[in-house]
Amino acid sequence: MNVSDYGTLGRAVYASGAVKSQLDTLSAQIASGHVADSYAGLGAAAQTSLDLRPQLGHLATEQSAIDAVTGQLGVSQSALTQITSIASNFNAQLATLNNVTPTQIDSLATSARSAIQQVASLLDSTDGGSYVFAGTDTANPPIPDPDNITTSGFYTQIAAAVQGLSTNGAAATAAQTLSIASSDAGGTTPFSGPPGQVQTLQLGTSAPVQVGVLANQNTLTVSGGTSTTGSYMRDILRGLATIANLSSTQANDPGFVGLVQDTQASMSGAITAIGSESGALGNIQSSLKDVQTQAGDANTALTAQVSSVEDVDMAKTISSLSQVQTQLSASYKLISEVSKLSLVDYL
Q1: Phi, psi of 200 (to 5 degrees)
Q2: Cα atoms in the 13 Å half-sphere on the side-chain side of 154
Q3: HEC states along 268-304?
Q4: pTM summary value
Q5: Domain boundaries along the sequence of the chain
Q6: Which CATH fold topology does 76-302 show?
Q7: pLDDT digit string (tens) for 65-92?
Q8: Shortest CA distance to 212 belongs to which of 81, 116, 85, 80?
């Protein structure tokens, strides 16, 4: 049956219903800000939304991941800076250790005992509950008990080696401390385990980006020198443990100067390596910032495209609503007038 079959009143009521439906649609659009509450309501524009929404989701995930690792890198850099400062301070004092009084040797040893605890604690730095120097094992501290590192097998074994200086000589003592610091054996190493896997971040289809360093292994640089474990952190801990166990009674020992020189050389190499590692991390931070900026720009562009098909032009929609309200009012008035007409009025 056609609309024309309903007569004048029927046609008026039908037209009014269509206007009312239009009014309801416009009211819903103003309330939600969206063209429709389903893809079907978008019509041909739905494909644009379906194509772009997954890309927006991927960008959001990528930006969130970059935010997380940027925080971790910032904590890592802060810890590396503090450790470098500690190591540099003691290395500078080693350069003059042969010309100081015995009392000053004991004082330096006492300071080193405090410093090694501080370095161990810095290696257990966290960001959001994650240990930043633990690699992928972020839930566990690299050094299980930093406050008591001076009672660990690592420290006590180095202490025993240094105390045997007068008997074994500088070269043998240095070799012993080097072996101890290089070991991953339980009961010797101060770390919770052997080197693990470094953290990486996958961005798109490019190669994974390294976004962290390990407490017990170099990851972005190589330690140099003739007296190194290959890890600047191990070298620094070894150096501090050696200094912490020097005694004023050894000041005139024939091997004292040689051990001090070996320790200074090892610490110097570690300071250079940690500087290189920090610089490499800085480059990663810079590149991640660039990626995040690009992702932000892409997100803005894609969001604008999605908005153009999903969101209403509020000013235009409000104007249309006003016009439709006027039309609906007029249609109701027409229905009222038509319904008053009698059959005589049609004759």
Answers
A1: -135, 160
A2: 31
A3: HHHHHHHHHHHHHHHHHHHHHHHHHHHHHHHHHHHHH
A4: 0.76
A5: 76-302
A6: f41 fragment of flagellin, N-terminal domain (1.20.1330)
A7: 788 888 899 999 999 999 999 999 999 9
A8: 80
